[in-house]
């Protein structure tokens, strides 16, 4: 199974990333199928430079994306917002606790 993910390159404490297509089971530092762009988190403008047509091609062929790449593609407008995935998993117990806390805050707010 192919996946689109980030490959870390750059100096120590100054990472830049390549957007690559590779086999999901292979190491990101190994060989990859194709280079699809770059991402530099240290600059504000032109930080994410994707090759949109090639990304669309690989997605149409069934390649998946990592959660970080999915978020980057959503922000860039290359995929729909409804397809955005969450990288953090909340258990049912934790979700119930957060909902109860939110409900308590709502009940307390009108009283004040």
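Sequence proposed for the structure above (112 residues):
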């Amino acid at each position: 199974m192919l996946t689109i993910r980030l490959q870390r390159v750059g100096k120590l404490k100054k990472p830049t990333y390549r957007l690559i297509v590779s086999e999901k089971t292979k190491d990101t530092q190994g060989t990859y199928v194709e280079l699809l762009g770059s991402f530099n988190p240290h600059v504000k403008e032109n930080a994410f430079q994707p090759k949109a047509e090639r990304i669309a091609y690989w997605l149409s062929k069934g390649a998946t994306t990592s959660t970080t790449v999915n978020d980057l593609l959503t922000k860039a407008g290359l995929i729909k917002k409804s397809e955005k995935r969450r990288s953090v998993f909340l258990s049912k117990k934790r979700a119930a606790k957060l909902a109860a806390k939110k409900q308590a805050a709502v009940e307390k707010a009108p009283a004040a």
